[in-house]
Amino acid sequence: MSTDELVAKIRALADAEIPADDGPGATPGYAITILRESQDFWEDEERDLIDPITLEYEAHRQEVAAGLAEIWGSPDQVELWPILKRSIAGEAVPPLLGDLAQFAVTIDTWQVGGRMVCQGVGHEDKELPIVLFVAVGE
């Protein structure tokens, strides 16, 4: 998807109804959508593929953030490492940010119509795909 198409999709997701917590894997009050997903990296022990693909996805994230900033203003950047540390220590953390901290380091956030819209690049484990995602929460 082009940057313009991703911006349009994120705008639509920001306005869409968030699914109810009514089934396995459902999350109350927020939705995470994968916008772009790389290959997996089971055979990339030397990180020959992971590092360049991560840079590519980060560049795409920045392009999308610039497009969204034209509409919603500059994003706040949230570092998720402190949230992950608090979660590991057993402290209560906001559910959306707690889930995002499991696979992302930094996210761009906007407040849009009473909702938090987040976008970033995630990589849950070294063998798994890199993802460009958006999350929308109440």
Topology:
Blueprint: H1 3-15, E1 30-37, H2 50-72, E2 76-79, H3 81-88, H4 95-100, E3 104-112, E4 115-123, E5 130-137
Antiparallel strand pairs: 1-5, 2-3, 3-4, 4-5
Helix pairs in contact: 1-2
Summarize the structure.
The protein has 138 residues and is of the alpha+beta class. Helix content is 36%, strand content 28%.
Helix amount, in percent?
Answer: 25-40%
Poorly predicted residue ranges: none
Helix run count: 4
Order of helices and strands: HEHEHHEEE
- The beta-strand count equals 5
> Cα distance, first to last residue?
26 Å
- Rounded average pLDDT: 91
Backbone shape: globular
SS strand fraction? 25-35%
**Largest sheet: number of strands, sense, barrel closure:** 5 strands, antiparallel
Instruction: Work out the radius of gyration.
Output: 15 Å
Q: In order across it, which strands form the biggest sheet?
A: 1-5-4-3-2
Written account of the structure:
- The structure is a single chain.
- With 138 residues, this protein is of the alpha+beta class.
- The protein has one domain (3-137).
- It is built from 4 helices and 5 strands.
- The chain has helices at 3-15, 50-72, 81-88, 95-100; strands spanning 30-37, 76-79, 104-112, 115-123, 130-137.
- The chain has a 5-stranded antiparallel sheet.
- Strand 4 and strand 5 (130-137) form a beta hairpin.
- It is globular, with a radius of gyration of 15 Å.
Keywords:
4 helices; 138 residues; 28% strand; alpha+beta; 5-stranded antiparallel β-sheet
